[in-house]
Write a structure and sequence with these properties.
Helix Hairpins, Rossmann fold, transferase, tRNA (adenine(22)-N1)-methyltransferase activity, seven-stranded mixed β-sheet, alpha/beta, 21% strand, 43% helix
């Protein structure tokens, strides 16, 4: 995450970008916290300065951001609270070390792979605060398959980019988790206006976002329609025999997205 550092008027701490501020709000009070892909450790330093967390690990796979994070932590006098580590994904953690993990600023497929490779390093992690910038469906599918249940989703527009933010909590009882996710991803959500939403589109659009669509939600999916229509146009000029079939699949996607948008309640003005 490349969020510029600025200081509050009193010089007492960091001021975060609106996206990082929103993520920070979702970190439980008193959490033992890990920020994966931490860059300059802005989020853990801010949370520590606000007395919101009891402990933090700031992890990054690259040496430059790790050095910058160490400098930031040292200048803030927080070395006893924030541990900066270099490593790939959640490899920087020990099992049971933290209860809350934030990952942001990367694609959803990579995010899901990082979570998948974590193994027992996710032991004790009951809250995940995530912001994938593409392929959000890959993250939602990972959460469902590992007994996490979304309790918050939002879209936030900053500098012309619409970001997806989500928080999920671990449900230890697997049958309860399964039941909660079945209810959350109810494909009859828009009935009777729309008999059924495909599971694919439900995971792409977000079950909580569909229940409370904002102006940003409508803009995001109108943009997605335009992207897919450009792909269809490119496929129409392709000579490969499979191109026509692929174009039909994309056309069906666009048709379904338009149908869902037409059945949603009127967009509420966004506070973002």
């Amino acid at each position: 995450m490349k969020d510029e550092k600025t200081m509050n008027d009193n010089g007492a701490g960091l001021k975060l970008s609106r996206r990082l501020s929103a993520l920070a709000e979702w970190v439980p009070q008193g959490a033992r916290f890990a920020d994966i892909g931490t860059d300059h450790a802005l989020l853990p330093v801010y949370l520590a300065q606000q007395n919101r967390i009891s402990y933090a690990v700031a992890g990054d796979v690259h040496e430059g951001p790790v050095d910058a994070a160490k400098k930031q932590v040292a200048e803030a006098g927080l070395a006893d609270i924030v541990s900066v580590r270099m490593g790939d994904g959640l490899a920087v953690l020990s099992p049971g070390e933290v209860d809350t993990v934030t990952i942001a600023g990367m694609g959803g497929s990579l995010m899901a792979r990082i979570l998948d490779q974590a193994g027992n390093r996710l032991d004790g992690v009951t809250t995940l605060v995530l912001s994938p910038h593409v392929a959000e469906d890959a993250v939602r599918r990972w959460l469902v398959s590992h007994h996490y249940v979304l309790d918050r989703e939002m879209l936030l527009e900053e500098d012309g980019v619409i970001y997806t933010l989500m928080r999920a909590v671990l449900v230890h009882d697997q049958s309860e988790a399964r039941s909660s996710n079945e209810s959350l991803y109810d494909q009859n959500l828009l009935a009777p206006a729309l008999e059924r939403i495909s599971s694919v589109l439900m995971h792409e659009m977000g079950p909580l976002l569909l229940r409370n669509p904002s102006e940003a939600f409508h803009r995001k999916w109108e943009q997605e329609i335009l992207k897919r229509e450009r792909v269809i146009l490119q496929l129409s000029h392709a000579t490969a025999p499979e191109a026509a079939e692929k174009a039909r699949e994309w056309e069906e996607d666009v048709r379904e997205i338009r149908e869902v948008l037409s059945c949603l309640p009127a967009a509420k003005p966004s506070s973002n």
